[in-house]
Write a structure and sequence with these properties.
272 residues, alpha/beta, TIM Barrel, 2 domains, 8-stranded parallel beta barrel, 10 helices, 39% helix, Pyrv_kinase-like_dom_sf, Pantoate_hydroxy_MeTrfase
Length: 272
């Protein structure tokens, strides 16, 4: 592995916007606990996302819509304790922000208070612009999420690329709406690479791609996908494995079992 640079000071939203101005790419990974957050921070990952994907990879729920505010708060607090200088973003779970601006601000402030995270993320473009404005008026940093929005998978008719052909105009309108509402960053999920790159060129805030090609300002992946730790379900086309953590973990567990069965662990040096 080549060397990596761990940030020596806290990563702020202003730092990520400065990277965009310099055309300097940066990385985001999901994290759900203290230990992995600490490893990713030491690897120099600038931004950690406590994603509602925890519903699938941590809790084993079928959809992201099952995870609760309490569950996100417990995970988020653990990540913040291990995050070092990385900026931590936490997802607002389904059902905690859609009803009204008041519900959204209440949920977000509780999540920030309980976790110590630096920013909240919510899904939706034009329809969520009022919520984003309310959050900004409450003094919170906000990451928007447009394109394919997993919390709306049933409404979208399944896991489908968004923004193709005539639908490109809606993605542009969604981006403009969240920018005007005050969003600090925006995630593009499962959108055509050419469209994401075109919007990024003129978008004044950092864009983060997941299944959106290489033309966005940053990239994010669920770490279980990135490191090949199988968590059930299908693996998206846009995922690349950068390691084989699942195989290593299985091998380690099998070696531990064998040592116990053979009576070679614990040995004298492991005993008091």
């Amino acid at each position: 592995m080549t060397g990596y640079l761990t940030p020596t000071t806290k990563v702020r939203v202003s730092d990520l916007k400065a990277k965009k101005a310099r055309s300097e790419a940066w990385a985001m990974l999901t994290a759900y606990d203290y230990s992995t957050a600490r490893v990713f921070a030491e690897a120099g990952i600038e931004c950690l996302l406590v994603g509602d994907s925890a519903a699938n990879v941590v809790f084993g729920y079928e959809t992201t819509n099952k995870v609760s505010l309490d569950e996100m708060a417990y995970l988020g607090a653990a990540v913040v304790r291990g995050a070092g200088n990385a900026l931590v973003v936490v997802d607002l779970p389904f059902g905690t922000y859609e009803a009204s601006d008041e519900q959204c601000v209440k949920s977000a402030t509780e999540l920030i208070h309980r976790t110590g995270a630096h920013m909240v993320k919510l899904e939706g473009g034009e329809r969520m612009a009022p919520r984003i404005s309310a959050l900004k008026n409450a003094g919170l940093a906000v990451c928007a999420h447009v394109g394919f929005t997993p919390q709306s998978v049933d409404n979208l008719g399944g896991f489908k690329v968004q923004g193709r052909d005539a639908a490109a105009g809606q993605l542009r309108a969604d981006t403009e709406a969240v920018v005007e509402a005050g969003a600090d960053m925006v995630v593009f999920e499962m959108v055509p690479a050419e469209l994401a790159a075109s919007i990024t060129e003129t978008c004044p805030i950092p864009t983060i791609g997941i299944g959106a090609g290489g033309g966005t300002d940053a990239q994010v992946l669920v770490w279980h996908d990135m490191a090949d730790l199988p968590a059930g379900g299908r693996r998206p086309k846009f995922v690349r494995q950068f390691g084989e953590v699942g195989a290593e973990l299985r091998n380690a567990a099998a070696a531990f079992k064998q040592a116990v069965h053979e009576g070679t662990f614990p040995a004298a040096e492991h005993s008091f």
